[in-house]
Amino acid sequence: MYSGFPEVGPEQRLDKAEALIPAAIHVSPEEAYARLQEPVPPNEGRLAMLDGRPVYRFRTGRDRWIVYADTGDLLVSVSQAMALSVAARWTGRPATEAHFDGLLRDVDQWTVSGEYAALRPLFRYSWPDGEQLYVSSRTGEVVQYTTRRTRVAAYFGAIPHWWYWTPLRRNGGWWFRFVVWSSALATGAGMLGLVVGCWMYSPRRRYRFRGEPARIPYSGAKRWHMILGLVFGSLACTWSFSGLLSMEPFAWQGGVAAALRDSSIRLDAFTPKPPSVALGQAGLPAKELDFVNLGGRPYFLTRQSAQVSRIVPVNGDPIGQFDTARIVDLVGNVAEAVVLRAYDAYYLDRNGRHPLPALRIRLADAKRSEYYVDLKTAEIVEAYDRRTRWNRWLYHGLHSWDLPWLYRYRPAWDVLVLALLLGGISLSITAVVLGWRASLRACASRRLTLLK
Hints:
There is one protein chain. The chain starts with 9 loop residues before the first helix and ends with a helix. It has helices spanning 10-16, 29-34, 80-91, 148-156, 158-162, 166-169, 172-200, 220-245, 275-282, 324-331, 388-400, 404-408, 412-451, and strands at residues 44-50, 53-60, 63-68, 99-104, 122-126, 132-136, 142-146, 207-209, 212-214, 288-294, 297-303, 309-313, 334-340, 358-363, 370-374, 379-384. It has three domains: 10-162, no CATH class; 171-253, no CATH class; 321-408, no CATH class. A six-stranded antiparallel sheet has the order 3-2-1-10-11-12. Strands 4-5-6-7 form a four-stranded antiparallel sheet. It is an alpha+beta fold. The radius of gyration is 28 Å and the shape is globular. Helix 8 (220-245) runs antiparallel to helix 11 (388-400).
């Protein structure tokens, strides 16, 4: 609820990044990419700082390239000395205090997901206060960062919640099957318990408890287990089932894929306006500059933080957001387009990270497709169709209780979810007690049988 698996997100990455120095940029993006002698244009292009120098970061398919924007030289590999400098700059700690933990070519607990495969080997450094930091030898960027607090929180939260233990998670196929089948087993067991509990419950008080008529035939832990199961059992089932749906095991949960931006970037379109000029026009201390082709038109997207950005057209003056009419025309077949300045039932985030304003576009197609577009970046943040709307309620709604009115009146959501979790924990404890006692009785009975 409050501390997830450690990661370096856009907010932290931009917060730690160095501000671009326009005067140090002497090579155009077209010239920099020409040094690579690639036959096709890049899919992504970005200008940022690396160890005190401006660099272009290009991606073509799975290949990543780094070209210095001050000299045009290609960065072939990231040295250990550079990685240490990047790590020290990120933490704000002296490099002399850092301990080099090695060049990791395999996964560890904090880099076990597949997204790190293309970034390895990773330089890992640690500091006496418990900070650990991973620098990619391919990109020179900090790709993972943990502290003692975030690691402890993950061991008690995200890791057992997602079954993210390294021996299991490193094999994606086995991990997927384990989570799916364990969730299905938990759902089935919970439903069986509900059936038995309802069957044994007597509204007419035909049982006796402490000499008085009672609706429940048990005492002690069994009684508490049945009471808690009747109250919280359905929630335990929906929680397990929605966890199963989070793995998307069924074909009917297929996603919606769309893109407003061109799949490849024509860097020659940015020649009329050098990046240094665009940065000056942006009027903010930008830390990154993205090259964007939107519907065939070139734009510089300058970012100071995850929330603060500025768009600089190659042919035009800076603007705060993309034109909604232009986006609607590019999408086509639009039945409805509305600018949202507050979250709705399908576009919401309890941490407030989804950008606003956003453009909600509903298409006039058979799938009833719906897109939420960040007007500051022209990126699709959320997408739904007739099938995935069910997933929004069956997974997010049942698993996280992310209902708009609960988020609107925080801490109402916190109080409700904590109360439900307390009930689920109590139900689980009584189940463990009963299972333990049954196991002891079975072992005792087996010993008596062997003695006879």
